[in-house]
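Holo prediction. Input below; ligand is flavin mononucleotide.
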Amino acid sequence: MEIKITEAIKSRRSVREFTADLIAEADLLKIIEAGRWAPSGLNNQPWKVVVVKNREIIAGLAGCTKYWRVISGCRVCLAVYYDESKGYNETKDILAVGAFIQNMLLTVQELGLGACWLGEILNQENAVNNLLSVPDAYRLMAVIALGNPTAKQRSSTRRPINEIIYKTID
Ligand SMILES: Cc1cc2nc3c(=O)[nH]c(=O)nc-3n(C[C@H](O)[C@H](O)[C@H](O)COP(=O)(O)O)c2cc1C
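Structure of the complex:
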């Protein structure tokens, strides 16, 4: 399936319900590869990912968020970290990790898979880090729940563009 970038951006929806189908390893690598090409300040690439396929660990992650259903139903979790040992400016580094995540979400969309960016789980960062045994320099930025989307109509809204443009200076 060929989809244009703007179309992919606009049609991507958070997917919170997944089928039992597995995710092919090749697709998983394509998703992370898309993240790899995200921009970053000084090209410092301050991101790191823990790929979680183990059902027990996924269940443990589900126990760390009130959105546990999303995690319980997914096939793979990507725990996305900001690796401070590679950082040079906190704001810029964290924005770069956001670009890394969005690149991955768009490739998920291109592959016909589904994902949800989970942020509420950051409230349990220590529990997640203990579960995944990551170094102290890693700061949890998000967990991405991944899987094959169930057939369901998903919609979302955005504020109109005139509320976004504060002003135009000609
Ligand atoms: C920083 C961030 C944190 C989010 N955290 C959660 C979350 O904890 N649980 C959840 O179900 N969705 C979460 N989402 C998904 C948003 O709810 C979703 O992107 C938003 O409602 C727009 O819907 P759409 O992604 O379908 O366009 C998060 C998204 C972002 C960018």
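The two ends are 41 Å apart (CA to CA). That is the main takeaway for now.
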